[in-house]
Amino acid sequence: MIEKMAEWRRTCYAGEVSTSQTGEKIGLMGWVQRRRDHGGLIFIDLRDREGLVQLVFNPETDSAVHEKAHNLRSEFVIAVKGVVQKRPEGTVNPDLKTGEVEVAVTEIIVLNDSAPLPFMIEDDTDVAEMTRLKYRYLDLRRAPLQRKLMLRHKVAMATRNYLTRNGFLEIETPVLTKSTPEGARDYLVPSRLNPGAFYALPQSPQLFKQILMISGFDRYFQIVKCFRDEDLRADRQPEFTQIDAEMSFVDREDVISVMEGLVVEIFKESGVVLAPPFARLTYAEAVGRFGVDNPDTRFALELVDLTALLSGSGFKVFADAASKKGVIKAICVKGGATFSRKDLDDLTEIAVSFGAKGLAWVKVTEEGWQSPIAKFLSDAEKEGTAKALGAVTGDLILFAADKPSVANTVLGRLRTNIGGRLDLIPKDRLNFVWVTDFPSFDYDDAEKRYVAVHHPFTAPMDEDLAYLDTDPLKVRAKAYDLVLNGSEIGGGSIRIHRSDVQAKVFEKLGIAKEEAEERFGFLLEALKYGTPPHGGIAFGLDRIMAIMTGSESIRDCIAFPKTQKATDVMSDAPSPVDQKQLDEIFIRVAKKA
Predict the structure, then answer these.
(1) What's residue 183's pLDDT?
(2) Residue 513 to residues 114, 432, 510, 524, 559: CA-CA distances in angstroms?
(3) Is 257 helix (H, G, I), strand (E, B) or coil?
(4) What is the pTM of this model?
(5) Is 108 inside a domain boundary?
(6) 417: containing domain
(7) Is 39 left (phi over 0), alpha (psi -120 to 50) or beta?
(8) Is there a domain that residue 577 lies in?
C-alpha cells in the first residue's frame, strides 16, 4: 500500500471541486458518505473536511473500476482519480457547494475499509450524547462539528494576530504549579522526586501573569488550558480554555477598549460585524433590574422594586421582609394570566430552589386580582403595584420578598425561565454588556468572615480605599465582566500593585500573614520590587464558541470533552493505576467508607 500511495496525490479537497475545473483530471481522497446504485451508473458521495462531491462510476468507461465501486460501503477510505464534469441538466443540487459538478472516476484504490458503524455519519443525529462521546472519532467526522472546530481555529488565529498587532507577547506559564485553592478545588499532581508534596494544575495563570507584568513584559497573552475540580454542567468542563491577557500601566478603560477590539475581530470570523463601544451596567444596576450579574438584555421583563409601596402591607410575608431590611420586588409577565396551576407550581419550585420560601403571584383578570394574597392588599396597593409594573388585564405578577440577594436571584432566574418558556428571547441577536463596579467583598454568614467576590488580588476603587477599615461591604472593585446574551464570556480587573494595599485586603479576608506567605509568598515578595499598575482579563474560549455556533453545550466546541461526571468515555479516563505506579509516588488509596 505504501508503494501505491506514492503514485497518488490529492490535488484538492472534495468540497472544493468547482465548475472552473471542468475537464481537468484531479485526485481526491476521503470517506464514502453513501453509495447509490442506479443499475448501470454507480454514484458515490465522497466526503472530507471541506464537504462532499459526487463521484460517478460508468461501466462503459471502465468495467473494472465500476466493479470496485460495487464493494464500497459507508466510511470506507478511498483515493480516486477522475475528470471533473458538469452535472447533466436537471440533476444539479443547489443545496450542495459542489452541486453543479461531479467527478467521472477513472481509477480507484481502497485505502481502508470500515466495520459496521454504531451510528451513521449524518449532519443531524438523534444518537445519545454518551454514544457520540464514546465514538468521538466518528462523531467528529460529522460536518457540524468539523465546522465548529475549524471556526475555533480561525478564532484562535484572529486572537493571536490582533493581540500581536497591539503589542502583546504570547508567553507560556507553568502547568505544574503551587496549590492556592480559590473557590474550586485544585487538581493535584503528586511529585515523585519530592515525596508527600504536590503540584496543582492551574485554575488560571493569575499569579504568573502578574509576575510577568512585574518582570517588565508590559503586555502578555496566552490561549491557555485551565483546570477546576468542580461539579459540571453544560457550560463547564474540568479542563477549559481561556484567552488570557494582562497589560501594564493601564486603567480599567484601557483594558476594556483594547479587549472590545479583540471581541470585534473574533466575531468577524463568523461573519458578524459588531459596533463598539458595548453597553455598560454597574453591578448594582444589573442586579437591581435583571436580578443577576450576568443579565440577558435581549428582552425586557425587568424587576421592579415595590418595597416602599408594600412595606406596610397586610400581607405578613411582605411586611416581615421590609422590617428586616429586605426588599419586595416583582416582575410582570405579559399575557401570563393564562398560566395553569401546574405552570405556577413549576415556577414556585424554581423559586424555592434559589432560596425563596415560596412564590406569591397575582393574575390580573377582568374580575380583578385573582390570587391567594389579594385579600391582604388594599385597593391603593393594588393600583400602585399595577401602575409601577404596567400590569393590565391578562398579565401575571410574580413577587419575591426577602433579603436583597435572595429576592433578586429568585426573580432573575424566573425571568430567564419565563423568557425561554414564552419565546421572548430573540435567537438572532447578540447583546454585549460590560458589568462594572462589582463589590470587592461579600460576607459569608456560615464562616463569619468577608470573602472576595472576584479574587484577593483585585484592586479596590481608589475612592473606596477608606472603607477598607470602616465598612468593607461598601468597597467597590476595579473589576469588569463582559456578558453576552446572559453568559459571562470574560472577566477581569485592575490588580493590586501596592504591597500595603494587598496586605490590608488579606487582613479583611481573614488571611493571616503566615497563611498569605504560605499561599502567595512569591507574589507578595515580587510586589516589593517596583510593581507597575496593571490589569487584565480572561475570556472563556469554549463558551464564546458555543454562543457563536449556536451550540447547546460547550462540549460540541471541544474536540475531546468530558462528561458531566468528568469522565472521558472514549479513552476510559480516569481509570485505576497499578500499585507499582502508586508506590513510586508514595500514594496509598483509601477504601471507600
Answers:
(1) 64
(2) 64, 40, 9, 11, 43
(3) helix
(4) 0.92
(5) yes
(6) 299-425
(7) left
(8) no
**Which of these three, 399, 425, 451, is where a domain ends?**
425
- Does the pLDDT of residue 99 top 70, yes or no? yes
Q: What angle do CA 264, 489, 449 make, to 5 degrees?
A: 140
Tell me the C-alpha distance between 29 and 262, whole Å: 37
Q: Which of 395, 425, 455 is the last residue of a domain?
A: 425
pLDDT over 90 at 399, yes or no: yes
Angle subtended at Cα 51 by Cα 46 and Cα 56, rounded to the nearest 5 degrees? 30
Reduce the DSSP state of residue 558 to 3 states and report it: coil
Phi, psi for residue 150 in degrees, rounded to 5: -70, -35
Q: Is the pLDDT of residue 2 over 70?
A: no
Reading the block at residue 545, the C-alpha cell is 464558541
Indicate if the pLDDT at residue 179 is higher than 70.
Answer: yes
Q: From CA 490, how far away is CA 543, in angstroms rounded?
A: 9
The rounded mean pLDDT for the chain is 94
Is position 100 within any domain? yes
Q: Compute the average pLDDT of residues 464-489.
A: 95
Domain count within the chain: 2
Q: Is the pLDDT of residue 439 over 80?
A: yes
Tell me the C-alpha to C-alpha distance, in Å, between residue 76 and each of 31, 80, 361: 6, 12, 61
Phi, psi of 124 (to 5 degrees): -105, 130
